[in-house]
Amino acid sequence: MDEDQRLLAVAIGTAIRSARRDAGLTLRDVAAKTGLSQPFLSQAENGHSVPSVMNLHRVAQVLGTTAHALLEQGARTPTSLVRSREGRRFALSDGAVLRFCSTGVRAMEPNEVTAQPGSQAGEHTEHAGEEFIYVIDGSIRVEVGVEESYVLDRGDTLYYPATVPHRWFNDAAEPARFLITSTPPSF
């Protein structure tokens, strides 16, 4: 684990522990409600590992917060400027990286995803609110619900209720880059 990953692991662990204690839950409670092992959660809280996006999302839901809030742990400010080469990055899955496009705790959560060919979001997720996707480069496929699948190319947008199970895939032979915005923040 390089220094940036170590610092991220410690920050996430501290945020999880704080939110868990604020919620009045034990590690055993969180493990039972998320389906994650207590040793894994202990390692995450102690900064020895960085949970995957999906696992962080599960933990955040149980703790009554969002993964984005756990990652940021910042105060709401009226303005947030993130330059094109800046922004905290987080590995979503093998071949996919998420870049936070805002800082602090916000009413909506804009994130840029860079997805290599063959990468995907992982399993379906669902949460309160709505999501909007705008494809900047390349092509992605988005599943919304059980029967709906949309192929989005450069310039295409998709808006859907986040309460419906959803996930994305890069089935193309080229990398894709897209903006995904959630409200309220879900990540």
From TrEMBL:
<dbReference type="Pfam" id="PF01381">
    <property type="entry name" value="HTH_3"/>
</dbReference>
<keyword id="KW-0238">DNA-binding</keyword>
<dbReference type="GO" id="GO:0005829">
    <property type="term" value="C:cytosol"/>
</dbReference>
<dbReference type="InterPro" id="IPR010982">
    <property type="entry name" value="Lambda_DNA-bd_dom_sf"/>
</dbReference>
<dbReference type="InterPro" id="IPR001387">
    <property type="entry name" value="Cro/C1-type_HTH"/>
</dbReference>
<dbReference type="GO" id="GO:0003677">
    <property type="term" value="F:DNA binding"/>
</dbReference>
<dbReference type="InterPro" id="IPR013096">
    <property type="entry name" value="Cupin_2"/>
</dbReference>
<dbReference type="InterPro" id="IPR011051">
    <property type="entry name" value="RmlC_Cupin_sf"/>
</dbReference>
<feature type="domain" description="HTH cro/C1-type">
    <location>
        <begin position="16"/>
        <end position="70"/>
    </location>
</feature>
<dbReference type="InterPro" id="IPR014710">
    <property type="entry name" value="RmlC-like_jellyroll"/>
</dbReference>
<dbReference type="InterPro" id="IPR050807">
    <property type="entry name" value="TransReg_Diox_bact_type"/>
</dbReference>
<dbReference type="Pfam" id="PF07883">
    <property type="entry name" value="Cupin_2"/>
</dbReference>
<protein>
    <submittedName>
        <fullName>Putative Xre family DNA-binding protein</fullName>
    </submittedName>
</protein>
<dbReference type="GO" id="GO:0003700">
    <property type="term" value="F:DNA-binding transcription factor activity"/>
</dbReference>
